[in-house]
Predict the 3D structure of the following.
Amino acid sequence: MQIKTVLKYLETIAPPTYQESYDNAGLIIGDASETVTGVICCLDSTEAVVEEAIAKKCNLIIAHHPIVFKGLKRFNGKNYIERVVMKAIRHDIAIYAIHTNLDNMLYQGVNTRIAKQLALKNIQILAPKKNFKKLFAFGEELLVNKLRHELFELGAGVLQDLQHLSYASLGAGTANGKGAAKVKLEILFPLDLSGAVLSVLNKYAVDSQINYDIIAIENTNPLIGSGMIGELTKPMSEKTFLKYLKNKMQVNCVKHTALRGKYISKVAFCGGAGGFLLKNAIRQQADIFITADYKYHEFFDADGQIIIADIGHYESEQFTINLLHEVLTQKFSNFAAHCTEVNTNPVSYYF
């Protein structure tokens, strides 16, 4: 099996379209046509992880964080990024990053795994993205119906638990002074299907059999976006919940703002640096917001309206390693996938 087969599957779970503009997810190092000998799943593709891949005869590293964010001008091994790139190339090891696109998924995403650890129910995206487009297609009824079914097969016309959603209306079209009965089809599709939808439309656009317009719309997609919010099965006191959080997320400590003397029921959270979502958490009346990388002055932004709990960047995303391993082993059986044995957390604690 080729590396690109594995990557193509991962991209059905977290399409690259949904990575943030600053990100560098995707195949960073390596030849996608090479045969997979084994996979290492990790958060960070450090030198130690590359060494682990060599020892276990794995030629593909699936990392959450990209090893390269900015352009490299020299390869002389003067920093860890250059050394990782050089060692991976030298040993024919491919490195693939599945970063903010995986963060933004409701199903099988980074935050979904946190929700599982905390046994939360009724989980939803905290800040859904506006990533829908709407197709208006015009043509004869038989052709429009055929087009509709092809678009449904691609995955268009889906909204949460509803499938095969569309609307059609009959009207009169004119061209060169002549009129004819036409059907107008309206159907939603997410951004990641744009290329596939256009490929189908181009088949029907020959000789103007079907004309179409595509527009971006303001509706948010409840399946795609940043952070999550969910509910505990039973409310807990604040101190009980902080102990629960520390235990379930396997962290050494929890930095938090002042307790409010209220029970915790609604929990907002975001793996990694999610401080930009605080207002969303407050707006949705969360009792606590769990994330990482909070700066001193940013803790003041809780302003008595919510508890901010910073559990550490690595700690908040560590179970992503297990998520990636589960995704791969459930789909593929013709190569070994391993969770890294290397702790790549650059932060240490002294007790």
In short: The chain is about 30% helix and 30% strand. The chain has three domains: 3-102+319-339, 110-127+225-311, 131-219.
